[in-house]
Amino acid sequence: MLRVIRRVWMPLLIAAVLAVGGFAVLRVRGIFGADSFASSADNNAKDAVPYNPKTLVYEVFGEPGAMADVNYFNEDAQPTRVDAVQLPWSFKIVSILPSLSGNIVAQGNGDTIGCRIIVNGEVKVERVSNEHNAYIYCLVKSA
Fold first, then answer.
1. Which of 77, 70, 69, 68 is nearest to 102 (CA)?
2. Which tops the pLDDT comparison, 1 or 94?
3. Sign of torsion, CA 75 126 114 137?
4. Contact 96, 49 (CB under 8 A)
């Protein structure tokens, strides 16, 4: 008899601990009302109404005939580089996202360069720099 008890006491103890633990989990879930699982096979959820489209326009301007290297955020908010564009330069983004972030950086070979970010026809930021190989940036955090 002692030999049988030595062989089965550990599996019996594990089974008892699992049973007590499972019972405790069920009781705690019942106390806090977690035993009712909300499930719905009904697909009556309404589609989200799209936001009004936003128009964001980047503009870089400077001396006539000047060239510039331009970096900006595209419609997917990814940095994009355009080298040696002739000024004035502009880029238009139309998006239905609830918010846009506009950022443009430019360096020209002239002595004057400026940038402007226009959102839905309203100038949000405009800057001008007057120096040799002028450098400029414009930033709109939330459009």
1. 77
2. 94
3. negative
4. no
DSSP 24: H
pTM: 0.63
Burial per residue of 14-38, b for 16 or more beta-carbon CB atoms within 10 angstroms, e otherwise: eeeeeeeeeeeeeeeeeeeeeeeee
CA dist 43 and 15 (Å) reads: 43
For 110-126, b/e burial (b = at least 16 CB within 10 A) is: bebbbbbbbbeeeebbe
Bridge partner residues of 135 (DSSP): 107
CA dihedral sign of residues 92, 129, 84, 138: negative
Task: Kindly report, residue by residue over 9-61, the tens digit of the pLDDT.
Answer: 898 999 999 999 999 888 887 777 665 656 665 566 666 666 688 899 999 99
Query: Thinking of the domain 54-140, which architecture would CATH place it in?
Result: Sandwich (2.60)
Query: What is 96-131 written as a DSSP string?
Result: -SS---EEEEEEESSSEEEEEEEETTEEEEEEEEES
